[in-house]
């Protein structure tokens, strides 16, 4: 086979999470109005402040325009054709694993996250969000001993309204952007984490998101608060069934790292990317941001291999002195996928530091864009940033684009940015094949080597999965 | 003619000043009409809401009613010209946008070469002008190009039709004297370099202090296969002048183009370069040094399109910023599908000397071919305290040590100026902006 053929065969691999689970769902009518928002809020038994907050967001959303600056093209979703709430129907919430719908448990096993397995072996506490509602949260008791709250967002609103009211929207205000406003109006569930002062969370916390029902959008909201000196590592994974029409995923993630706290947030995003002709797939329009107070650290790690269109900029506001922000990203696009992703590091505190490592891989007709902002405010004395953006092109019909923005208002700040673009060369492949590796293994190895700097930031279990995903997503495309 | 909508006084007054010159051929009249329509449809002068102008505000200019600069026939121009230093080669001088034959001369050109004012060219050899004027600098995309095309009074035509012609370095000086009112001038250059020809052109702009002015030069440069053109822009405008220049280049196979700009004056100094590499193995080198203090802005904007395979482009830009100055760099490289074996590099280095200075830098890559080598780098920093300490231990005063380090940062860009009289002037000007600069010049 020629190199081109090998690349081709390797990138034409099928999406393996494209099954639909037949579960009875409690769904409300399509469309968006104040009435729908009231229904969502009522169904979730929310206190008044939540309803007011949602309505405020909705009213602001009505005045906003869908953003057009991203380097992506897609059919604008019709926001009246989306079902904003869909919950797996159950008599009442499960109090233990045994009560979880077996059909649901099977779905999660297919995804490779058997809840019990993870409880026993990996020691990972899982909060699984199916369509819009959190299904089961494992390992809760053990966490409760330490005073850690890890629950679904709805539960947090019921059980810890004060904490929610204090922090909700404090990092991503309802007026932040078009999709964040939409999310604020209609979000149905998500995860909530609170780690008290000085507590080191003893295990990795994990959420799995899945869009199952047809015509639904998923609008989850994650809020993580690490109190002074606390530490937490949080993982999220995402999959969806294969469907011809595009589904919208517009999530908001807010992180608050108080003085001396550390939050490590890892994502493996594998939403359905659409077929080879670009039909179907998820629109992944996500707002993620953290506020880092004095001497705290926020670290985003993402492996993005899915979604038809990705629009995502996990950011850190380095508010406190000596705070640290990190962004490690691997974004892979294949077939007709488009990704416009990157980060914003806003340095406000003295001696704040940030690191950006972005690895973009483009194959097929994929278009991959890194867009990032590093901003040094006037008070950011001695702040430092180092950014590195590398692109790898596989095939001659894809594109890799880099749009870094650097704004510096302080002379003592140091900012460095580097970017390179390269391809998998025939020499590299030839060398690997000469050593007895198959084409696929060779490409997978080269791609993994390219992404290694990011993958090593992932917790162990995820790193293994991410490596496999990179190999899989490229299958059928190499040369 | 008026502009509709919320157009600023500056753009409004430019549109009002629009008349078609009595000597303009009909086709140029049409082009000027099209240009003024372009200015109108683009909504007047750009604002920071345009992505390309995000960091460079023209608000301070927009509120002024601008006049077309009146001809300056007096000795003021000659006095300003003194500042440009001596020059032995061919030279064309323009005062307030009008050709000054008494200060210009063109000798030593190779056979067949045409170096005349645009006004003369339109009368004598319009067929050399018509195919190219307004072709690269599009009036429907860029408000300042539109304003220039609609309102330029004169300019330069340089045509080197003979294959392999080697021309001596040519200097074009734009002088703006300020009558105490806000004036606008629109210098224009059209350069067509034939196959294998070689030429160096220096555009030197100088304006008097003490008045607001808009100087908006547009240059169009066409390189035939194997041609080599070196273009220098040497800008020492007054501190209230807005110099908003754009250079539009098209390169055929194996041609070489270098653009180097030294922006040392101006309230807002912006130098744009738009280049299309249409033939294989074309090479482009763009570089520049911007120095600004007080609340001035220095802005370099580069847009390179790699259309053909095996082309090379290099961008190297530096700024030195003091006071509340702002330094802006936007470098865009677009590699079209099929432009394989492209090699493109961008680098932007910035030195901040004060707490209030700002740097905004955007090196951008858009790559649609897979076999390419593209990289960009950007850095922002201050003077290295260790180096300062070292120089102090060697007995240098604080200002002398700082000056030496700043000069060291800028020196590479100064030395890129090849024509000798100009390089000496560049050294002197850069040094004069440093606290202990006088001693540095003596030492050099």
Short description:
The complex is a heterodimer of chains A (479) and B (444). Chain A has 479 residues and is of the alpha/beta class. Helix content of chain A is 25%, strand content 35%.
Describe this structure in words.
The complex is a heterodimer of chains A (479) and B (444). Chain A has 479 residues and is of the alpha/beta class. Chain A has helices at residues 3-11, 34-43, 48-62, 102-110, 115-122, 140-145, 153-159, 161-167, 178-186, 426-434, 439-455, 460-474; strands at residues 25-27, 86-88, 125-130, 133-137, 149-152, 189-195, 205-210, 220-226, 231-239, 246-249, 252-257, 262-269, 281-292, 297-304, 309-312, 315-318, 324-333, 338-341, 344-347, 353-363, 367-376, 384-394, 399-408, 414-423. In chain A, strand 3 (125-130) and strand 4 (133-137) form a beta hairpin. Chain A starts with a helix and ends in a 5-residue tail after the last helix. Chain B has helices spanning 9-16, 26-41, 59-62, 76-83, 118-124, 126-129, 143-151, 385-393, 398-415, 420-432, 437-443; strands at residues 67-68, 91-95, 98-99, 114-117, 156-160, 170-176, 183-185, 188-193, 198-207, 213-215, 218-223, 228-236, 241-251, 256-263, 268-277, 283-292, 297-306, 312-321, 326-335, 343-352, 358-367, 373-381. In chain B, helix 8 packs across helix 9 (398-415). Chain B is globular and about 70 Å long. Residues 1-6 of chain B have low confidence and may be disordered. The chains are: A alpha/beta (479), B alpha/beta (444). The A-B interface holds A 69, 376, 378, 391, 393-423 and B 51, 55, 337-338, 340, 350, 352-382. Strand 23 (399-408) of chain A pairs antiparallel with strand 21 (358-367) of chain B.
């Amino acid at each position: 086979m020629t190199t081109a053929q090998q690349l081709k065969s390797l990138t034409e691999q099928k999406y393996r999470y494209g099954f639909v689970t037949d579960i009875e769902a409690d769904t409300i009518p399509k469309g968006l109005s104040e009435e729908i928002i009231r229904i969502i809020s009522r169904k979730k038994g929310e206190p008044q402040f939540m309803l007011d907050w949602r309505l405020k967001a909705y009213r602001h959303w009505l005045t906003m325009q869908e953003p057009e600056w991203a380097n992506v093209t897609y059919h604008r979703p019709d926001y009246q054709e989306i079902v904003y709430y869909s919950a797996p129907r159950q008599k009442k919430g499960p109090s233990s694993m045994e009560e979880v719908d077996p059909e649901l448990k099977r779905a999660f096993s297919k995804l490779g996250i058997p809840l019990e397995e993870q409880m026993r072996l990996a020691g990972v506490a899982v909060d699984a969000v199916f369509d819009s509602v959190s299904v089961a949260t494992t390992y809760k008791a053990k966490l409760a001993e330490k005073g850690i709250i890890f629950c679904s967002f709805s539960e947090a609103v019921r059980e810890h309204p004060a904490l929610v009211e204090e922090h909700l929207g404090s990092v991503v205000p309802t007026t932040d952007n078009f999709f964040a406003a939409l999310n604020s109006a209609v979000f149905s569930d998500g995860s909530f984490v609170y780690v008290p002062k000085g507590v080191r969370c003893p295990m990795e916390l994990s959420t799995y998101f899945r869009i199952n029902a047809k015509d639904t959008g998923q609008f989850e909201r994650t809020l993580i608060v690490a109190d002074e000196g606390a530490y937490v590592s949080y993982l999220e994974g995402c999959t969806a069934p294969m469907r011809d029409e595009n589904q919208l995923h517009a999530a908001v993630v807010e992180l608050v790292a108080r003085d001396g706290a550390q939050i490590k947030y890892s994502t493996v995003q594998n939403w359905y990317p659409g077929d080879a002709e670009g039909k179907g797939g998820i629109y992944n329009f996500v707002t993620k941001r953290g506020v880092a107070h004095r001497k705290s650290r926020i670290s985003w790690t993402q492996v993005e291999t899915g979604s038809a269109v990705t629009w995502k900029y996990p950011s850190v506001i380095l508010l406190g002195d000596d705070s640290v922000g990190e962004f490690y990203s691997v974004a892979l696009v294949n077939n007709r996928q488009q990704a416009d992703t990157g980060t914003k590091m806003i340095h406000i505190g003295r001696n704040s530091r940030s690191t950006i490592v972005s690895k973009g891989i483009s194959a097929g007709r994929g278009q991959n864009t890194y867009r990032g902002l590093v901003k040094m405010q006037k008070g950011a004395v001695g702040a430092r940033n180092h950014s590195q953006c590398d692109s790898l092109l596989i095939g001659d019909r894809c594109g890799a684009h880099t749009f870094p923005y650097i704004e510096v208002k302080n002379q003592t700040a140091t900012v460095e940015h580097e970017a390179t673009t390269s391809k998998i060369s025939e020499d590299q492949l030839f060398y690997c094949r000469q050593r007895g590796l198959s084409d696929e293994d060779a490409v997978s190895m080269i791609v993994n080597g390219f992404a290694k700097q990011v993958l090593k930031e992932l917790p162990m279990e995820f790193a293994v999965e991410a490596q496999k995903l990179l190999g899989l997503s490229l299958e059928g495309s190499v040369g | 003619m008026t502009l509709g909508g919320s157009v600023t006084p500056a753009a409004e007054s430019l549109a009002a000043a629009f008349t078609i010159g009595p000597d303009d051929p009909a086709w140029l009249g049409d082009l000027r009409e099209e240009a003024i329509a372009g200015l109108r449809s683009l909504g007047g002068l750009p604002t920071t809401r345009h992505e390309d102008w995000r960091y460079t505000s023209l608000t301070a200019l927009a509120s002024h009613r601008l006049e077309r600069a009146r001809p300056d026939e007096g000795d003021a121009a000659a006095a300003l010209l003194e500042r440009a230093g001596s020059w032995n080669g061919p030279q064309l001088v323009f005062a307030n946008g009008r050709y000054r034959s008494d200060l210009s001369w063109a000798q030593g050109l190779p056979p067949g070469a045409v170096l005349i004012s645009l006004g003369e060219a339109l009368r004598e050899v319009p067929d050399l002008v018509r195919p190219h004027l307004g072709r690269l600098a599009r009036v429907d995309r860029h408000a300042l190009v539109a304003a220039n095309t609609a309102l330029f009074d004169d300019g330069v035509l340089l045509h080197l039709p003979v294959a392999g012609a080697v021309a001596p370095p040519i200097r074009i000086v734009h002088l703006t004297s300020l009558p105490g009112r806000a004036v606008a001038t629109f210098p224009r250059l059209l350069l067509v370099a034939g196959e294998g020809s070689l030429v160096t052109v220096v555009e030197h702009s100088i304006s008097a202090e003490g008045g607001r002015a808009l100087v908006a030069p547009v240059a169009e440069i066409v390189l035939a296969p194997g041609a080599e053109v070196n273009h220098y822009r040497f800008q020492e405008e007054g501190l209230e002048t807005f110099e908003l220049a754009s250079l539009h280049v098209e390169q055929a196979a194996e041609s070489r183009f270098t653009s180097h700009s030294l922006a040392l004056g101006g309230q807002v100094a912006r130098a744009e370069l738009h280049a299309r590499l249409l033939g294989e193995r074309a090479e482009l080198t763009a570089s520049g040094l911007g120095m600004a203090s007080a609340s001035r802005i220095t802005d370099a904007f580069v847009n390179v399109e790699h259309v053909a395979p095996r082309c090379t482009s290099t961008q190297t830009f530096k700024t030195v910023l003091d006071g509340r100055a702002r330094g802006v760099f936007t470098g865009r490289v677009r590699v079209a599908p099929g432009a394989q074996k492209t090699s493109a590099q961008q680098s932007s280095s910035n030195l901040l000397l004060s707490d209030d200075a700002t740097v905004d830098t955007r090196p951008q890559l858009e790559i649609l071919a897979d076999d390419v080598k593209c990289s960009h780098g950007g850095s922002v920093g201050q003077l290295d305290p260790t180096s300062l300490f070292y120089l102090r231990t060697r007995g240098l005063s604080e200002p002398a040590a700082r000056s030496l380090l700043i000069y060291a940062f800028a020196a590479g860009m100064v030395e890129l100026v090849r024509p000798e009289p100009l390089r000496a002037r560049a050294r002197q000007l850069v040094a004069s902006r440093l606290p202990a600069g006088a001693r540095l010049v003596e030492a050099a």
